[in-house]
Amino acid sequence: MLLFNKERFIKKQYENQKSEQKEKKEYEITIKPYNFNTKNEIEISQIIIRIPNYSHFFHPIIRNSFVNIAEIDDKCIENLKESQNSDKNKYMLIKKKSIETQNFTTFFDCFYSTFRENQENPRKYLFNLINSYKYSLEMIKQLENVKLISLCFHPSTLIFKEELPVLSNFERFFYYPTMNEERKSNLFSKYNKNDIFLPLEAHVICYLLEKNLDSISMSNIDEICADYYGRLYSLSCFKKDILEQFKESAHFSLIPFINKPKQTILNEILHYKSCITWNNYGISILFIVLLRDIFYKNGTFPQNSFFSLFFQTLTQNIHPLLYKRHSTLDNISLFNDILYNTKPCDFLQLISYISYIS
Prior knowledge:
Layout: H1 2-26, E1 27-33, H2 36-48, E2 61-67, H3 74-81, E3 91-97, E4 104-106, H4 107-117, H5 122-145, E5 148-150, E6 158-161, E7 164-167, E8 173-175, H6 181-187, H7 200-210, H8 218-235, H9 240-254, H10 262-269, H11 272-275, H12 278-295, H13 305-316, H14 328-341, H15 344-357
Antiparallel strand pairs: 1-3, 2-3, 4-6, 5-8, 6-7
C-alpha cells in the first residue's frame, strides 16, 4: 500500500511538472499594475478574440487574474516597483498565447537590423515591405469591422510573426460604441505635441482636456497648427509645397471649432466618420517613417514610379482634411492597382537601388 501511494505521489508530481511546462510553453505570462491601461487592454482583447481567425493579425490577452504581489519573487518585485499609477497596489497576471521565438521579430529587427543583411537579397527585402503593408491594411480592416480605433501604431505595438505584422499592444485603443468620459479623460488627457502617430484633430482633444478649456480660440488654433507643422517638418521627407499645403489645410480644418463649446467639439471630432480614419493614419505614418529612414538619401527619394505612387498614397492618408484621406478599402484597392500597373523594370530598378544603398 505504501509503495502504491509513493508511486501515485511520484506520478502526480510528474503530471504537475508536465502541466507547468505546458503552461509555460502555451502562454506568455507578464504581470502589470491594474490601472486604466491594463483594464483597457483586457477589454479590447475580449473584443478581438471574437474576431474569426484573430490570431492571424492580433496577439491579445487570453486570460487575466489578480495576483498577490507578496507571492512574486524579488526580481519581479523590483520590476513592478518601477511601474506608475497602480490602483491600490493591485496587480494583474496577464496571459497571451506564446509564439515560437524563432518565428517572430520586432519591427526594428524586420526592417532595420536586417537591411544590411539583405544586401545580397534586396528582392526579399522589397517583398517583405510590400507584403507587410498589404497585411497591415487587412489588419486595420478587421479592426474597423468591429469598430476598434488605435491611437498609436508605434513600432513597439507590433511583432512580426513569420515576417508579417501582428498587433500585440492594445493599451491605447478604444471601442467606439463604449467611448465615454472616463475613456476620453484617460486616452486624451496628455497633449504631446511631438506625437506623430496621432492625427491633428485628435491633438485638438488632447489640447482641450489637458488645458481644461471650455472652448477654443484663434490663438489656440495657431499654437496647435504650429505644433502640427513642427511634427510634419520633423519627418524631414516632404517637399516644401506639401508642407505649405498641409499647413494651410490644417488651419482651415480647425477654424470651424472657434468659440464652440468643448463638448460640441469633442462630439464632432469623435464622430465615427472622423476617427475611423485614424487607423489608416497611424499605419501610414509608420510606413512613411520607414521609407524615409531606408530610402531618403541626400535629400531625395528614388525616382521610381512604384515608390512615388506608394509614398503619394501614404501622404494622402495623413491629410489634415478628413474628406481627403482614403478609406481602408480604397487603400487596399489603390495599392493593388499600383502593384498591378508597375512594370517589372520599375521593380528591378528599386531592387537595384536597395542593393546599392544597403
